[in-house]
Amino acid sequence: MKLHLNQSVWEVTEPTSLITLQVFITNRCNKMCKDCFYESRLGHGDMPMTVYMSLIDDSLKRFPDIGKVILLGGEPTLHPHLPEMLSYNIQKALKTTIYTNGARLDTLQHIDPIYVSVRIGVLGLTHGEKNLMEIKPTNIETGIVYMLRNDNIDELMDAAYYAEKHFNCRYFMISSIRAIQATGDFWKDTDDTVSMDRYVSVVQDFMENYQGNLNIHIARRGILEGQHHIHHCRFLNVYPDQQVTLCPFDISKGIIDHPKYLGRTCNKHSECLLQKLIYIKK
Ligand code: SF4
């Protein structure tokens, strides 16, 4: 399906496909979100700093083209050695994104925005287990990812305006929860998840009516058409115990892969489900 947008208002681009190392540096979290894709591993355990350093070194040797490291969990700001991990990545000339629920955003005041970016995932504006209004705004530059569920569609537009007004928000991204732990299948819905058809109409409606100035990123979710077609896995998801899963949609299924299979052909769809569209206001 295709989004039909006013081309005199929006310019669309798509990101290039980078090899991305996603390191789950802790299993601990300060939230309990329904349908969390990491639910089966949540609990105790941090990745030790020595393990983190060898992971970075080994990954760079094996995949010199790594373009980005994403630190997540659990809640990555709970890791006591997060600052050292960021410094280590800078030493290795790696850009880092911290994917957080925002509850401890204030602990990230001292990051260097040239090398480190912050992405906040939310499940609503005023309600939901992690909602935007409960996050104390700071001047840290952030991207805000709004994960659509059936219970938060009505707050989507207001959340985008709130993000622009109260945060130093670089982009607002729309994606959706897929309850794979419950359904075992990316394409199946529960009462909570937004069906693919509805996802397209919610996004279309948002883009037609949004009057703000943020850049809008849209997850294609295997249903929205784009110009780029990525057919291979480019994510290495590594857990505190150093086990690896290639596809983020296999994390909640407990599937363990070997890093050497990075680059394998997509086994979920005709192309990767993790592509996105970037809309920039002209
Ligand atoms: S959606 Fe397909 S290509 Fe993308 S990470 Fe998963 S299996 Fe790999």
Polypeptide structure, described:
By secondary structure, this protein is α/β, with parallel strands linked by helices. The protein has a single domain, classed as Alpha-Beta Barrel (TIM Barrel), CATH 3.20.20.70. It is built from five helices and eleven strands. It has helices at 49-62, 82-91, 156-166, 180-183, 196-209, and strands at 10-13, 19-24, 66-72, 96-100, 116-122, 141-148, 168-176, 215-219, 235-238, 244-245, 276-281. The protein has an eleven-stranded mixed sheet with strand order 1-11-8-7-6-5-4-3-2-9-10, covered by helices on one side. Helix 2 links the parallel strand 3 (66-72) and strand 4 (96-100). Helix 1 runs parallel beside helix 2 (82-91). The longest helix is centred in the first third of the chain and has 14 residues, at 49-62. It is globular and about 50 Å long. The model has no long low-confidence stretch (mean pLDDT 96). Iron/sulfur cluster binds next to loops.
Q: What are the defining features of this structure?
A:
282 residues; alpha/beta; TIM Barrel; 19% helix; binds iron/sulfur cluster
CATH class: Alpha Beta
Based on secondary structure, the structural category is alpha/beta
Cα distance spanning the termini:
24 Å
The CATH superfamily title: Aldolase class I
CATH topology: TIM Barrel
The ordered string of helix (H) and strand (E) elements is: EEHEHEEEHEHHEEEE
Number of distinct helices: 5
Strand content: 15-25%
